[in-house]
Design brief:
- The protein is mainly β and about 130 residues long.
- The chain is about 0% helix and about 50% strand.
- The protein has strands at about 5, 10-15, 20-25, 35-40, 45-50, 60, 70-75, 80-85, 90-100, 115, 120-125.
- Strands 2, 4, 5, 6, 9, 10 and 11 form a seven-stranded mixed sheet that branches. A four-stranded antiparallel sheet has the order 1-3-8-7, with no helix packed on it.
- Strand 7 and strand 8 form a beta hairpin.
- The chain starts with a strand and ends with a strand.
Length: about 130
């Protein structure tokens, strides 16, 4: 089992920045590809960003590319999502997730590829 705990959400004005953190415990963090997803009210959960086990490979949704940056610190068992130039449409609950059993360069961009999920952190962007 892997436990994931997100933090760093909050209320920010449009154009502002936030950094989300997701702390993992329970298993060897470097064995997992990690991802961030979000779910806005009345909408389905959607992919935001993902990072491979090896740290060198990342992928982003078109809607956040160039504004968000995913990173990880395997020594701290933590994955981050730096969000800049935030827009009201970024308002959502943000979830981190862990994907097991993949190679070091694998990127998981679909929710069904993830084995473990955090409980989410709310991000609200005001206009």
């Amino acid at each position: 089992q892997v436990q994931l705990v997100e933090s760093g959400g909050g209320l920010v004005q449009a154009g502002g920045s936030l950094r989300l953190s997701c702390a993992a415990s329970g298993r060897t963090f470097s064995n997992y590809a990690m991802g961030w997803f979000r779910q806005a009210p009345g909408k389905e959960r959607e992919f935001v960003a993902a990072i491979s086990r090896s740290v060198s490979i990342t992928r982003y949704a078109d809607s956040v590319r160039g504004r968000f940056t995913i990173s990880r610190d395997n020594a701290k068992s933590t994955v981050y999502l730096q969000m800049s130039s935030l827009k009201p449409e970024d308002t959502a609950i943000y979830y981190c997730a862990a994907s097991a059993g993949r190679g070091p360069t694998y990127i998981a961009a679909q929710s069904y590829e993830y084995n473990y999920w955090g409980q989410g952190t709310q991000v609200t962007v005001s206009s």
